[in-house]
Design goal:
Layout: E1 8-16, E2 21-23, H1 24-28, H2 35-42, E3 46-48, H3 55-69, E4 79-83, H4 94-101, E5 110-114, H5 120-133, E6 139-146, H6 157-160, E7 166-174, E8 180-186, E9 194-196, E10 200-202, H7 204-225, E11 235-238, H8 243-253, H9 264-267, H10 274-285, E12 293-300, E13 304-311
Parallel strand pairs: 4-5, 4-6, 11-12
Antiparallel strand pairs: 1-7, 2-3, 6-7, 8-13, 9-10, 12-13
Helix pairs in contact: 3-4, 7-8
Bound molecules: acetyl coenzyme *A.
Acetyl coenzyme *A (ACO) binds near residues 269 and 301.
C-alpha cells in the first residue's frame, strides 16, 4: 500500500449532543448494575440520549454548529460524507437527509454514508481527503453521527451501560501543504464478536483484547509511515469506548495518560461520532497553538481499525 499524504485543512469542527442525560444511577434502576461497576470497568458516568430526534437531526445540528463557528457559506459544500451505522433509514442515506435539512437540496453535492463501525470517522476522513485531493471537490462536510439508543436493548446490562447518542462534524478543504495522513484497515471476522441486528451484541472481553492491540498497532503504523515518534504528537484523540483500553495503550506505549484526550465519562461510547465529538471538545479546551500534530485513532466492528494524523 502506498503511503500517500493528504493536503487538507480542517476549517472547523462542530458537535451536537442531545440534552437528555442518562446517568449510571438511572441505569441502576433499569438493570442489575451499579455506578461503581460501570465507572471502574469503563470510566463512563453519564451518556446522552436522543428524544424525538433521529441520526440525521443530530448530524445536521453538528454540521450547523461547525458552519456557524466560522460563518462558513454552506453553499460552497460539494461533498457530504456521514459515518454511521444507525441511519434513519436503510435508504436514503443520512448524508442525503443532511443535505436537505441544511437547505441544500438544489445544490450539486456528492452525498454518501460510510458504515465502518466505530472506525467510521477515520474511514470517512480517509475517503474525504482523497476526494478533495483528487481536485474534483473543494469543500467537504464530514460527519460522524449515531443514535445508538435505537439499537440498545435496555434490558441487557452487558451493552446498555456502554453507549450514548451524539454527532460531530468537520469542514475540510484542500490545502497547499501535505499535512494529513490516514491509515484504515480491517481484519474481517465472522465470529459475531460485535454486531448489530435489531440490537447491538458484543463479546466484551474479546472486543477489549482486539481493541488494545489494534489501537496500539494503528498508532505505531501512522508514526512509522510518517517517520515520527510518539513525542512528536501533541495530542491523541482516541475512539471513546473504554477508559481502561486507553489506559492500557498508554502504558504499553510508555506515554502519560494525559497525552490522550478523554471525555467518555460524559458521553459513553458514541461510536462513529466519538472521535469527532472529542476533537471538537479538545479544540475548545485548549489555547490556539499552531502546527499542532493531532493523532486520531479508532476501532470497531468488522473488525475495523485505523488512525490518522492532522496538523492544525
Ligand atoms: N453491571 C454489572 N455487571 C455486569 C455488567 C454491568 N453493566 N455488564 C456485565 N456484567 C457482568 C457480566 O455478566 C459478567 O458476570 P459473570 O462473570 O457473573 O458472568 C461480568 O460482569 C463480566 O466481568 P468482566 O468480564 O470482568 O468484565 P470486563 O472487565 O471485561 O468489562 C466490558 C466488561 C466493560 C464490556 C469490557 O470487556 C469492555 O469494555 N470491552 C470492550 C467494549 C468495547 O469497547 N466495545 C465497543 C467497541 S466498538 C464500538 O465502539 C461499537
Amino acid at each position: 500500500m502506498k503511503k500517500i499524504k493528504n493536503s487538507i485543512k480542517l476549517i472547523a469542527t462542530g458537535t451536537y449532543i442531545p440534552e437528555k442525560v442518562l446517568t449510571n444511577f438511572d441505569l441502576e434502576k433499569m438493570v442489575d448494575t451499579s455506578d461503581e461497576w460501570i465507572v471502574q470497568r469503563t470510566g463512563i458516568k453519564r451518556r446522552h440520549i436522543a428524544e424525538g430526534e433521529d441520526t440525521s437531526d443530530l448530524a445536521t445540528k453538528a454540521a450547523i454548529n461547525a458552519l456557524e463557528k466560522v460563518k462558513y457559506d454552506k453553499n460552497l459544500i460539494d461533498l457530504i460524507i456521514v459515518a454511521t451505522f444507525t441511519p434513519d433509514y436503510r435508504s436514503p442515506g443520512v448524508s442525503n437527509l443532511v443535505q436537505a435539512k441544511l437547505g441544500l437540496s438544489g445544490n450539486d453535492i456528492t452525498c454518501f454514508d460510510i458504515n465502518s463501525g466505530c472506525t467510521g470517522m477515520i474511514y470517512a476522513l480517509e475517503v474525504a481527503s482523497s476526494l478533495l485531493n483528487s481536485g474534483k471537490y473543494q469543500h467537504a462536510l464530514v460527519i460522524g453521527a449515531e443514535v445508538m439508543s435505537k439499537v440498545i436493548d435496555f434490558t441487557d446490562r452487558n451493552t446498555c451501560v456502554l453507549f450514548g447518542d451524539g454527532a460531530g462534524a468537520f469542514i475540510l478543504e484542500n490545502s497547499d501543504t501535505e499535512n494529513a495522513y490516514f491509515y484504515t484497515t480491517s481484519c474481517g471476522e465472522l465470529d459475531k464478536t460485535l454486531y448489530v441486528d435489531r440490537y447491538i451484541h458484543m463479546d466484551g472481553k474479546k472486543v477489549y483484547q482486539f481493541a488494545t492491540a489494534a489501537v496500539e498497532k494503528a498508532i505505531l503504523k501512522v508514526l512509522n509511515d510518517l517517520n515520527l515518534t510518539i513525542n512528536d504528537i501533541d495530542k491523541i484523540i482516541p475512539h471513546q469506548a473504554n477508559y481502561r483500553i486507553i489506559h492500557s495503550v498508554a502504558k504499553s506505549l510508555n506515554v502519560a495518560l494525559d497525552k490522550f484526550f478523554l471525555n467518555i465519562d460524559e458521553y459513553g461510547n458514541t461510536s462513529a461520532a466519538s472521535i469527532a465529538i472529542a476533537l471538537d471538545e479538545y479544540l475548545k479546551s485548549r489555547e490556539k497553538v499552531s502546527l499542532e500534530k493531532i493523532l486520531l485513532v479508532g476501532f470497531g466492528s468488522g473488525f475495523t481499525y485505523g488512525a490518522g494524523l492532522i496538523t492544525l
